[in-house]
Design brief:
The complex is a heterodimer of chains A (109) and B (120).
Chain A: E1 4-7, E2 10-13, E3 19-25, E4 34-39, E5 46-50, E6 54-55, E7 63-68, E8 71-76, E9 86-92, E10 98-100, E11 104-108
Parallel strand pairs in A: 2-11
Antiparallel strand pairs in A: 1-3, 3-8, 4-5, 4-9, 5-6, 7-8, 9-10, 9-11
Chain B: E1 3-7, E2 10-11, E3 18-25, E4 34-39, E5 45-51, E6 58-60, E7 68-73, E8 78-83, E9 92-102, E10 106-112, E11 116-119
Parallel strand pairs in B: 2-11
Antiparallel strand pairs in B: 1-3, 3-8, 4-5, 4-9, 5-6, 7-8, 9-10, 9-11
Classes of the chains: A mainly beta (109), B mainly beta (120).
Chain lengths: 109, 120
Amino acid sequence: EIVLTQSPGTLSLSPGERATLSCRASQSVASSYLAWYQQKPGRALRLLIYGASNRAAGIPDRFSGSGSGADFTLTITRLEPEDFAVYYCQLYNRSPPWTFGLGTKVEIK
Amino acid sequence: EVQLVESGGGLVQPGGSLRLSCATSGFTFSENYMTWVRQAPGKGLEWVANIEADGSQKGYADSVKGRFTISRDNAKNSLYLQMNSLRAEDTAVYYCARDWWYSERYPTLDAWGQGTVVTV
């Protein structure tokens, strides 16, 4: 089973700053199968990025994804107040079909 | 607008049973794989089970295999999770989600409900 390791666990930043979140797979994976999600308390999870670098519908362009092989990155160029949340990377695979990282919490400094 | 609304959560004793439901709208339910994901308190997300569009194929996490059963009623646009022999470690928020492949190349869970809380 492929394991996704996200780092850092918590990122303390101020509005307007740049956030860089890492997701590392335990082996090389297909970038087309890597996605990122945002979770806020009491809200449904929101798909941000699919295929490692494609923004989902309605996602602001301050969110971008990159990477290949085993290393992937989610970047938020200028944090808005509504961006403080937990972010998960996710991989589609044969078994189990969906694997998630443990998340990175982006909190207000 | 795609909507998924879970229900059926609650407090149950170890060894007990619970049936979760997920009512959907805004899309052609019968054409989509559907998935249950859970999140234990303070923990990350864990895939629980999924089911093919016509209900013919189902998959389960090892942690729930033999105890949980996923099903669907395409006439009612609804997804279910029957949970038996519940354990303390099954305590979590349970989410239903829609499987969606962008451009037939990029798999995602593109729509989620807000979850229902199960406490064992």
